[in-house]
Amino acid sequence: MELKRDKPSDYLEMLYYDTVNMSPDSLRMLRNVAGAEHIMLGSDYVFSGTPQPLTEPVREAGFEPAEYQLICCGSAQKLFFE
Q1: What angle do CA 21, 26, 32 make, to 5 degrees?
Q2: SS3 letters across the chain
Q3: Based on CB atoms within 10 Å of each CB, which residue in 10, 11, 15, 27 is the most buried?
């Protein structure tokens, strides 16, 4: 892995992110920076008391079906099991 980069933002695409407490606008911005393959559905379990379904902000962001699938399960599956 090449670690010599010009600026800190060059590393953002190397990290993985979860969707806990993100708005649809934030999720779209994150997708543009890191890609849907680096975003995973997050729950903040046991502390989450939110009445909305965990996938609601992801659905409201208006992603393509393939991106929605990556965020809801595909990214985590690739990171942890492949």
Answers
A1: 135
A2: CCCCCCCHHHHHHHCCEECCCCCHHHHHHHHHHHCHHHEECCCCCCCCCCCCCCCHHHHHCCCCHHHHHHHHHHHHHHHHHC
A3: 27
Q: How many residues does the chain have?
A: 82
Mean pLDDT of the chain: 87
- pTM of the predicted structure, to 2 decimals: 0.80
How far is it, in rounded angstroms, from Cα 57 to Cα 32?
Answer: 16
pLDDT tens figures, 32-63: 989 999 999 988 777 656 656 888 999 999 99
* β-bridge partners, 18: 40
